[in-house]
Every structure is written in C-alpha cells, then in structure tokens.
Amino acid sequence: MLQLHKKLGEIRLQQKISLTQQIQTRAHELGFALVGVTPAAQSQTLQRYRDWIENGYAGKMDYLEKHLPLKEDPRRLLAEAKSVISLAMNYYTLDTPESLATDPGCGQISRYAWGDDYHDVIRERLRHLVEFMRCTLSETGYTSRVCVDTAPILEREYAQKAGLGWIGKNTNLINWRSGSWYFLAEVLVNVPLESTEVPDFPVGRGTVPRHATLPRGSCGTCTRCIEACPTDAIVAPNVLDSRLCISYLTIELKESVPMELRPKMGNLIFGCDICQEVCPWNSKAMPTTEQAFYPRAGNLAPELLSLVNMTQVEFSSRFKGSPIKRAKRRGFLRNVLVAIGNWGARAALPALKIALADDEPLIRGHAAWAVGQIGGETAVRLLKTRLAVEDEPGVITEIQEALARL
C-alpha cells in the first residue's frame, strides 16, 4: 500500500510539471545551459535583416539573401511547427596564456574552433532531446526539426524572445548571468508548449507566465566592443558590416583579403573574439563542462611557421572534425600568410619561398604580400625570382605591388 501511495504521488508530481519544464530539465542534463520556448510565429525582425542585406553588409555571403524567404517564418522549415525551443550551449573554456596571446609569431584561433566541431556535438545532443520528447509525448503524429546555425532561421531573435538574453551592440546574444560564449540551436516541434516568453512585459501589470524568464540586463551606454574592433566592423550599435569583420575575412571570404584590411588583422588566423573578450558581461563567464570544446593539441596559439607549408593531406588530417576545415587549406594558409606579413620576421622567409611556389594562386599572392611586408635584399630577390615565372595575373599584381613598397 505504501508503494502504491508513493507511485500515485510521483504521478501527481509529474502532472504538475509542464512539458516545457521537463524539456528544460532534460536539455540541461544534455549540456545546454540555457533553454526557452516561444510559439512558432512570423519573424518580427525580418525587415531589419532585409535592410542589412540590401546595405551590402552580408558581403559575399549570397546564401543569406537566397535563404531570406525561409527566414520569414520557422513554419517554412517545418509546416506543422507550433513551438520553437531555443537552446544555448556554453563553449567558454580557458584564456590563452599571456605569453602566447601577445606573441606575433603565433596565430590566434577563435575560441569556438579550439576543439571539436560544435555542429557535430550539438546535433548529437539534440537527437537525444528529440527522442526524449518523442517518448514523453507518446504521440504517433509527433514531428520535429533540429537547427544548428546552418539552418535558415533568425536564431537570435527567437532566443531573445525565449528569455535567453538580449542581442548586444556587437550583435551577439548576451545572457545577464553568464555572458555571450554560447552556441545557439533550435528544435521546431508540432506541439504547443508552454512559452517562457515575456514580450515587452509592463512591470506591475498582469500575470507573468509561470516559467517565463524576466528580461534583465542590457549594454547600457557601454561601447567597448565598438571601440575595440580593429577594423571598425561594428558600424553602429547592433549593426555589423561583415565585409570588415575579421571573422568574415578569415572564414567566409573565399577571395583575397582586401589589401587595406590585412595590417589590421594582426595574427588572427581563424575568426575573432575581440568584441566578446572586451565585453564586461563576459567577466561572469564560467568554464564549460563539455570536454569536446577544450583545445585540441596545437590549436591554442600555434606557431605560424608550423602551419604555413601544410600540404592538403596534412591540413585534412590535422583539422578533421574541426570547424577550421570550413576555411579550407587555401583560405586558412591565406590567413596564416597575412599574419606572417604582420609579424614581419625575416626568419619566415625560407617558408615564404616555398609558399611562393604553391599550386594555389591565392596562397602565392598572399605569400608575395608577406614577403613585401618583411622587406630586405632577400625579399626583393625572392619576389623577382617568382615574378619571372609567374603566369597568374592576380599574383603578378601582388608581386609587383610588393616590390613597389620595397
């Protein structure tokens, strides 16, 4: 009899816990630090996003405009969607030792790319969450779709609505308790879940939904991220010109880095964390428990000369299962060569001699620029020797401009 009463008590307790709460609990167990729910509804910021694209701020990322109609409403991705579950996973690990962070002979890689590819890690966790919901709902008609930043959805808008944080002046989602070192993801489901949203809730009026997250925190008058950006990519609060952003230049841009921006990139070879590093809210960041995001061997400020002459086989092996593979060998070595040029050490000239003969014109062109930045008689000799055999117009121009600076 005692066991029966205990079982009935557990059932009553379970009935009092909403499905949203159960999902939040399971998501936390799976490593998601922040979880919220909003109804699947049409975007309220699409026009602003459209204006951003029309202003040219998307740069060469043509797919953003191509996917614009899909971003109008999450139901374009899942017609039966009733709810959007927004999730955030912490990837803050540790800080780069000062001796490495300030060494111009070492390359700086964005923190999010130190470890394993977050797409793989998060998709696997979302798969478990979806299976949990399937078992909990016990409905044959249950459908869902998982999204990890490659899906055409305005994820920061729904995350902000769900109470996960606010969109800061650097355009990142910031949580008032723990900052902005988060990967965002979503699950679209055809189930009307209890929302955590408190849209423009007027204090002192009405009733706050039971599981809502009250809005808190803002950037206020702080402009540290705007002032710290080396390329002035944050052209106004909450407005980023991708064409100037170092993350865009080192990852999304597939062509030559504009000449005038190269000196401003310093030794950043994949992504940029500056606007997050200077954000006061990130002083509250706590290290993640997800070991997959901790640095792989060699990813924490690697020596530039250890990277510049990697073959395709070496690149593919070293960055297998890493976000860095997105830049491809040609793009990554282009970035490394810009960093070497900014370093300006003559010790790099032997490695640059090899890069000047690379099969890839993009690499040869940026190697010529780096040689020109270093200067000296050896640099002049290397450039003239290459110019005599070079047949790619773009590379010829790079060599001639480098020689003109010497």
Q: Any overview of this molecule?
A:
The chain has about 400 residues and is of the alpha+beta class. The protein folds into two domains: about 1-95 and about 115-195 and about 215-295, no CATH class; about 305-405, Leucine-rich Repeat Variant (Alpha Horseshoe), CATH 1.25.10. Helix content is about 40%, strand content about 10%. It has helices at about 1-15, 20-30, 45-55, 60-65, 100, 120-135, 155-160, 225-230, 245-250, 275, 310-320, 330-345, 350-355, 360-375, 375-385, 395-405, and strands spanning about 35-40, 85-90, 110, 145, 165, 175, 180-190, 235, 240, 270. The strands form four sheets. The chain has a four-stranded antiparallel beta sheet, sandwiched between helices. Helix 2 (about 20-30) runs antiparallel to helix 6, helix 12 packs parallel to helix 14 and helix 15 packs antiparallel against helix 16 (about 395-405). The protein is elongated. Mean pLDDT is about 90; it is low at about 5-15 and about 200-210.
Features:
single chain; 406 residues; alpha+beta; Leucine-rich Repeat Variant; 4-stranded antiparallel β-sheet; two-stranded parallel sheet; 38% helix
